[in-house]
Design brief:
The structure is a single chain. The chain is mostly helical. It is built from seven helices and no strands. α3 runs antiparallel to α4, α3 packs antiparallel against α6 and α6 packs antiparallel against α7. The protein is globular and about 55 Å long. The C terminus is likely disordered.
């Protein structure tokens, strides 16, 4: 039976969803910058203003730990290039996300020290630090499995599905951490029915839609590539 037509249809659908994911990701970053630069005090890690220091955290966790991770996932399954190219982009973007995530977490601990707040007391912080620790393990697992020392072909084939599933799970965990963080900040600021509250709501929706479209793009891309290999 000829499966070329269904594969082609799924590939085109995956490309359209990928474009939508890029747009939602860019929109989320723009809304985040508008919120932090216009409504809050700005972004500066070395500032004497603790709130400018704190604002480094949401920006880097969104741009680095959600946006770049989502882009890395889509790059591996949807970029039409020779296999080493998307593989390198996938690895490099995840490494960038890891570094930016470390800086983002450092910013929130620095903020807590500046204003004498307890660390790791909220559900947001528990989900966030748990996600980050699992992300480090996932990156190390993927690096050792596919790059160095690199497992055998049968082992890579057997474990690759777990690697993909783990990445998708971690993306949703990161989004869950982001949304609970926005809710926590929303509550602390005691926002009412105003422009800033609407902006935060649209920001949260853009982050959620980015995650959903990334997952759909990767799922369809994985299905078509799986059929092409079969």
């Amino acid at each position: 039976m000829d499966y070329s037509a269904p594969r082609e249809s799924l590939w085109m659908t995956s490309k359209r969803i990928t474009v939508a994911a890029h747009m939602f990701g860019i929109l989320a970053n723009i809304l985040m910058l508008i919120w932090l630069l216009h409504y809050r005090e700005g972004i500066e890690l070395d500032s004497s203003n603790p709130y400018r220091v704190f604002n480094v955290h949401p920006f880097l966790m969104l741009f680095g730990f959600i946006f770049l991770v989502g882009e890395a996932m889509m790059a591996y399954k949807t970029v039409a290039a020779q296999r080493p190219v998307p593989k390198f982009v996938h690895l490099f973007l995840h490494l960038c996300a890891l570094v930016l995530g470390i800086v983002g977490i450092h910013a929130t601990f620095k903020f807590h020290d500046m204003v004498n707040l307890l660390d790791m007391y909220s559900l947001h912080s528990w989900i966030g630090i748990g996600t980050f620790c699992l992300f480090i393990l996932q990156w190390l697992f993927g690096f050792s499995l596919f790059v160095f020392p690199r497992a055998s072909v049968p082992t890579r084939a057997r474990l690759s599905h777990w690697h993909v599933s783990g990445g998708r799970m971690l993306l949703y965990m990161a989004i869950c951490a982001a949304l609970t963080g926005l809710m926590q900040k929303f509550t602390f600021m005691q926002l009412k029915n105003n422009r800033e509250s609407y902006l935060i709501n649209f920001l949260a929706l853009a982050i959620l839609l980015f995650g959903i479209t990334v997952d759909l793009s990767v799922s369809l891309g994985h299905y078509t590539s799986h059929n092409q290999m079969a």
